Amino acid sequence: xxxxxxxxxxxxxxxxxxxxxxxxxxxxxxxxxxxxxxxxxxxxxxxxxxxxxxxxxxxxxxxx
Length: 64
Fold this sequence. Notes:
The protein is 73% helix and 0% strand. The protein is built from 4 helices and no strands. The longest helix is centred in the N-terminal third of the chain and has 16 residues, at 10-25. The mean pLDDT is 85.
């Protein structure tokens, strides 16, 4: 994750955090609809909510 954050700008990192927050707040059925509407989102359809929360916390710890 650290390597990825070093390659992108602060605006992109902020957008990642925003999307992770939104995804973690969605119900599984909302996430399925989101995946149908976004072509590149099929990878997240079956991802557990905890993974989004952990990713968000990891990004925040690196940025801090």
